[in-house]
Write a structure and sequence with these properties.
By secondary structure, the protein is mainly α. It is 73% helix and 0% strand. α1 packs antiparallel against α3 and α3 packs parallel to α7. The radius of gyration is 26 Å and the shape is rod-shaped.
Length: 251
């Protein structure tokens, strides 16, 4: 075995180990993203309403699916790459190079779409519409609307839809809930608007969604760079193996 073949095998093997680690990290992120917004632990009716009201839930599910699928693919391809490098199989390496290039193209498209979506002003508009609709029924006899609003306020450290002043516009009038307090409700004067959270829940939910899209875009960018490097490495390893065979130095 010549030096160039040994060096290429080592580089490709190390790359695939790194790629596998990235895959495991993506699987972990997907699991975290999936459980982060789904479990509200409210009543069954309130859980369903929370999922419908909170746009971040659907966005987080989509993000989680992206991370899980990408993570599984990365691990599988990394295993194939390691086997191909160890077995010095040029066909396997060329197939791997082609798959990585195809994945890189997909990641480029996903990255562009994710960054474009993060700048969509309709995200905030939709969040305000849904949360304002739920907040308008805060005083209903059906307590699920109250449960969902207070859940959002505690989860996202926010108050109302646009702000705590939204509670003044509810019919019939209601007190600003304790979930709007910045810290300990006992030190919060809800009647004098003292110690209350300033950010509205629509803004908080929209920021969460934008953060998700930017995260997906950034990770997709990192992935397609890695995949292009991996494809080039796999291709050159395949060429090096074939050249070694022709020279009769292949072992």
């Amino acid at each position: 075995m010549n030096c160039s073949l040994g060096c290429m095998k080592c580089l490709v093997f190390v790359f695939n180990v790194v790629y596998a680690i990235v895959g495991v990290a993506l699987l972990s992120m997907g699991t975290i993203f999936f459980t982060q917004e789904v479990e509200t632990k409210l009543s069954p009716d309130a859980d369903a309403l929370a999922t419908e009201t909170n746009d971040a839930v659907q966005a987080l599910k989509q993000g989680a699916l992206f991370f899980l699928i990408t993570g599984v693919l990365a691990i599988v391809l990394a295993i194939i790459g390691c086997i191909g490098a160890i077995k010095e199989n040029p066909l396997l390496m060329r197939v791997l190079a082609g798959i990585l290039l195809l994945l890189a193209l997909v990641q480029i498209i996903i990255s562009g779409l994710a960054f474009a979506a993060s700048g969509n002003g309709d995200i905030l508009t939709h969040a305000r519409q849904k949360i304002s609709t739920n907040l308008a029924r805060y005083g209903d006899s059906d307590r699920k609307y109250q449960q969902v609003q207070e859940y959002l306020e505690e989860k996202y450290h926010c108050c109302g839809s646009i702000g705590f002043s939204d509670y003044k516009n509810i019919t019939p009038p209601v007190e600003i809930p304790k979930s709007c307090c910045i810290a300990d409700p006992t030190t919060c004067d809800r009647f004098k608007n003292s110690g209350l959270k300033n950010k509205g829940c629509a803004d908080a939910v929209a920021e969460k969604i934008v953060f998700l899209y930017k995260t997906v875009g950034a990770i997709s960018t990192i992935l397609y760079i890695l995949e292009i490097i991996g494809a080039v490495g796999a291709y050159f390893l395949a060429v090096t193996i074939l050249n070694a065979k022709r020279r009769g130095t292949f072992t």
